[in-house]
Amino acid sequence: xxxxxxxxxxxxxxxxxxxxxxxxxxxxxxxxxxxxxxxxxxxxxxxxxxxxxxxxxxxxxxxxxxxxxxxxxxxxxxxxxxxxxxxxxxxxxxxxxxxxxxxxxxxxxxxxxxxxxxxxxxxxxxxxxxxxxxxxxxxxxxxxxxxxxxxxxxxxxxxxxxxxxxxxxxxxxxxxxxxxxxxxxxxxxxxxxxxxxxxxxxxxxxxxxxxxxxxxxxxxxxxxxxxxxxxxxxxxxxxxxxxxxxxxxxxxxxxxxxxxxxxxxxxxxxxxxxxxxxxxxxxxxxxxxxxxxxxxxxxxxxxxxxxxxxxxxxxxxxxxxxxxxxxxxxxxxxxxxxxxxxxxxxxxxxxxxxxxxxxxxxxxxxxxxxxxxxxxxxxxxxxxxxxxxxxxxxxxxxxxxxxxxxxxxxxxxxxxxxxxxxxxxxxxxxxxxxxxxxxxxxxxxxxxxxxxxxxxxxxxxxxxxxxxxxxxxxxxxxxxxxxxxxxxxxxxxxxxxxxxxxxxxxxxxxxxxxxxxxxxxxxxxxxxxxxxxxxxxxxxxxxxxxxxxxxxxxxxxxxxxxxxxxxxxxxxxxxxxxxxxxxxxxxxxxxxxxxxxxxxxxxxxxxxxxxxxxxxxxxxxxxxxxxxxxxxxxxxxxxxxxxxxxxxxxxxxxxxxxxxxxxxxxxxxxxxxxxxxxxxxxxxxxxxxxxxxxxxxxxxx
Length: 701
What we know:
Elements: E1 3-5, E2 10-12, E3 17-35, E4 47-48, E5 54-55, E6 58-59, E7 65-73, E8 83-89, E9 106-111, E10 116-121, E11 130-139, E12 142-152, H1 155-162, H2 168-185, E13 227-228, H3 338-380, H4 388-429, E14 454-461, E15 470-475, E16 481-485, E17 489-490, E18 496-497, H5 499-519, E19 526-531, H6 542-547, H7 557-580, E20 595-603, H8 609-621, E21 627-633, H9 646-651, E22 652-655, E23 660-664, E24 671-676, H10 685-700
Parallel strand pairs: 1-10, 13-23, 16-21, 16-22, 19-20, 20-21
Antiparallel strand pairs: 2-12, 3-4, 3-7, 3-8, 3-9, 5-6, 6-7, 8-11, 9-10, 11-12, 14-15, 14-24, 17-18, 23-24
Helix pairs in contact: 1-2, 3-4, 5-10, 7-8
């Protein structure tokens, strides 16, 4: 049975050897890009197009045509390839210049026997001259196809740039030149024959889902709009491919780490996050391996690592029983360590849930619009308004609506069941940096010897599946400061929390996050400062103060605020000057080179104009040199400063101490509900972890 996909919807592929058939109302260019597990193209050798029509496992046409047949053998693509994007573009010379002026292209994935497995009509295009039609991607050892339909008004150059190809403009020009040569030699082709019963490509099709990359606000409340979520980085972290390629194929280039959610994304995430999205992955330029296109040798070493060993392959996936999905395995993504594989797996779960939900919502919207059209048509004829004919038409429209929604929900429930099963396997296997506070892994906690890839700030979920929680992971070191909003809020269940209660919860959230950041860093690598001008956060700060993990007692009063800000501002200046002068190892004695985190409570109380300027400086310049900010503040209380502080709020990632749907992912713009990573009521886990951190810190000093 053929799966008729809508934008964002995916479908499993039961065969490795496939044919992708493309039908358009005008000659189009067909090609494909190979991507790593995050979709990034690592070089021109990862693109198959009319000028270079073959790659291991792929073959495309050498010319533009109204019909195409692309040969795909997923078993023959290089191991480093996790995604294959099928591209369509209008030729640069002659003909229409935008897809909105031609019939909607139709794409079908078939087996070698010609039986359709999945199809997709690319609707909703207007000024775009290039489009990513489909994505074939590897997930848990199996391949799936996803309907994408992402168009680009800037043509092939913009499309390839968006996929991370540095030589996008040169390659796009080369493709169009090859197509122009092919068109000069081509014989006009007969119009395509439409088979009887073919789903007429000119009839109405399901409305596409939200555009990828959208950061539209959905369900946001209050004066603060939803922030693009990048929990996993603006772009997911690059995973270097295997150093060897299959026989007969080129050796793919080494992915470079990205630095942004970004989102996150959702936001990123990140993201990124997803990442994954995006979200921030903060990596210095010096840590990036040289690009293969630069002419130098390919460096397969992982960023910040000295060895050049290939990444550890994911564990084998247990074979699935006939008719049953594959059993999920914790850490089944590619990575250099189990932590990295789990991080990438969480990114994949986040992305899959976002896309599956987008497909479900799009299908429901289509069913609703179709029912409205059928009801309008039934009522348009006056004769049908009297008697049973009109009632029968209305009943038929509603029955069709119910059937379509039930089909969409059944497909969505299958995706949710698979993701839920994966979450139940992954959550217990997470390391402390990624785990909830109620995870038993904290009972065996030991101060680490190296910094993890990311840290968990909380959970993310969507209203259609509130019980399925995806960890919100943010790359380390933090690229953005955090703002714990302590203003009065209306909770998702409609209850209202006043400012004092929200402030108490906000301080508890800040302490839990600070404790987690301390716990995931090696002894002596993280220093914690607190500004509490009026002492209103004293009760919440007791765990930090009593265990001795603070660099100094919380600063109070205007003098305390000025002293801490002056010291941290001076540190930022000194490190920046040392880095710019190439003398990072020649800092003055007494400069603390560890990462610094400053918790600011009750802003703007106790802050004069000079202190506000210093705070903005730390928010903007601090993260790049290891000084990070965590604000516990109510934006309305700072309104007296006017628009002066708007850049400060925008530079911080807003988090809430209670569940709130204020984060939007960078693909389809879902309003994700964020829930902070709180310590269970009555649990002593926070105290036990901080005691170990303090003991290790005392030994280090």
